[in-house]
Amino acid sequence: MDPIRNPYAPGAGQRPPELAGRDEQLAAFDVVLERVARGRPERSLVLTGLRGVGKTVLLNALRSAAVRKGWGTGKLEARPDQSLRRPLSSALHQAVRELGHPEPEEADHVLGVIRSFAQRDAGADAKLRERWSPGIDAPAVRGRADSGDIEIDLVELLTDVGGLAADVGKGVGVFVDEMQDLGPADVSALCAACHELSQNGLPVIVVGAGLPHLPAVLSASKSYSERLFSYQRIDRLARDAADRALVAPAAEEEAEFTPEALDTMYDATRGYPYFIQAYGRSVWDLAPRSPITADDVAVAAPEAERELAVGFFGSRYERATPAERDYLRAMADAAAMADDEDPVGSVATSDVAVVLGKKPQSLSPARDSLLKKGLIFSGERGRIAFTVPHFGRYLRSQS
């Protein structure tokens, strides 16, 4: 098969040629956009799921839908070592520009509030290079969104942005990737702001994406967050959608898979979108001709597994310290002993301690560090799981 015409695209956040299995989420979001633009009450949205299920791809697709409706949009990626102020200011700056408000003075006022909100982090004695204002010519508006209390400031900021959007009969969408990495104060402020906006009927929504424990992070910050957001679990694809993700791009290149090849591909990928793209690319490059057969998949599987071992699993494993790697391997072994088919390897922390022959308390530093690095998550008290599907299987294959 011609590698130049290979349609498959494994990559972090890279949109696949066929966005299969997400029609329900896209259709529901179109309803949200219309309701908010018409002043109807609607909740902000949170997407959760493991690594490699396409959360970022779907987040970008939802943002594109908002842009097509004429909304102002901005996107940011949360980081545990970064305050919300600057990245959110950049996102809202873009959203205000996209809105295209007909009154320059009104738009400049809101841009000045955004500038004031961002610069509050720098402090009065900050050097010029530390004062954020890329592209904003409007002067900072003093006394608005600059109190230093992130909760007060964020409510004021989004209220002003929402008012600007309401003036032109449109909405503003703030898209936050890796939302679980927001600091506790920023999470609390974002929840409070969403609560205020929904009560006032302003056309601003937040769309967040994060790991499976994100709902617990939000709930721990504000108890009402359970009712504040609409939560959608993004999981692996059903068989028909997984087949479509392979068949539709191939058909565009006048190629096809045999039914047996599709069976073999689903057995190998288990419907995880990133795995589908990785296997699809390897199979296409190594298959001699169309139709692609089950034998072609078998020949290409080792190449796909090598790529996943280096780029998907290995890159994450390399981020761990020796003590953390011991903990990860113990998690994998504990899951295997439990004979659990769970692809994320959910295990009790006490079982990990048994495998390592140590007291659970002595393992807390390694566990907490892995949680912060986003390699594992805790969906319920006393249990942990990998954020990457089949990570345990990968670790056991390396031993």
UniProtKB/TrEMBL annotation:
Annotated Pfam families: AAA_16
Sorted UniProt keywords: ATP-binding, Heme, Iron, Metal-binding, Nucleotide-binding
Domain Cytochrome c, chain residue ranges per copy: 166-317
One function term, GO molecular function aspect: ATP binding
Listed name of the protein: ATP-binding protein
Taxonomy of the source species: Bacteria, Bacillati, Actinomycetota, Actinomycetes, Propionibacteriales
UniProt cross-references to InterPro entries, sorted A to Z: AAA_16, Cyt_c-like_dom, P-loop_NTPase
Coiled coil region boundaries: none
Stretch list, region Disordered: 1-21
